[in-house]
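W.,

You were right to be curious about this one. When I first looked at the sequence I had no strong expectations either way, so I just let the prediction run and decided to look at it fresh. Below is the sequence, 309 residues in total, followed by the output.
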Amino acid sequence: MGFFDLNGELGRRYGSIGVCLDQPLVELQAWRLDHGFTAEGPGAARALNIANALAKALNLRQGMHMQILQTIPEHAGLGAGTQMSLAVGLAMSSLYSLNLTARDVATLTQRGSRSGIGIGTFTQGGVIIDGGRGSNTDVPPVIARADFPDDWRIILIQDNSHTGVHGELEAEAFRTLPKFPAALAANLCRLVLMQALPALAERHLPAFGAAIRELQACTGDHFAPVQGGRYASPKVGSVMQWLDSQHASCFGQSSWGPTGFTIVENEVQAREQLMMLQTTFPELTFLLCKGRNTGGILCDINNRKNKKS
């Protein structure tokens, strides 16, 4: 849902808020191999790159076969790289009793360089606030966590013809964008602490949404020179304008996009809004989601034992 301190004058930079979704998700099965790595299914190439890099870093001589059953669209602003990295790394750790934590895997795979949301949602689920990066930070720490209300629904707005800023272009953006005003960062921190989180605790979507919309507007305008406007996809931007005209409580862009989102009070309202969106914007794809208040699940398919990651 966005960064709230891009200024960093207090010694920590970024700081972000995000929510874990029940879908899309990464689901994979893994088996030991005597040597080498193989993978099949959606996202297999990325999974192989992650596994090989981890094995090299850990000096692991054995291998692993991965069957990927589900994955998250890449470069869509939904954390696909982080979730795949954690799934592959923790599967490898379990198979070979490496005792790695999600934080270990994130560090080894260079995830969480700016935001700790992906690691926090993987380990805990729910709504996550991370504390940004300080001078000695490896992974931004989770400083607050709350359940996402069971009744609320999230509609993802997906432009499959567009990809979000990523890789070197993303790194270049953070190097070259102008300094974020300290007063604006202070206001966003206040909005998160004194509006978004209390509204979440009281299940008050209008107040929560007002804070998120302001956060989105400020950070979106800051990143506009890189992503071409407040929103990465003009088509998704048109949906945002429509949602505003419909007085929607909460909407914005997920990370660098192009995926957008809107949050509604309940299932009935969500399905009504979903039908209107599909009719009004037939060129886009929409996905109705719930918040997920549990983290990733590690399951031994031989012994049928589950445990939270």
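Here's what jumped out at me. The radius of gyration is 19 Å. And, maybe more interesting for your project: The mean pLDDT is 94.

Coffee later to discuss?

I.
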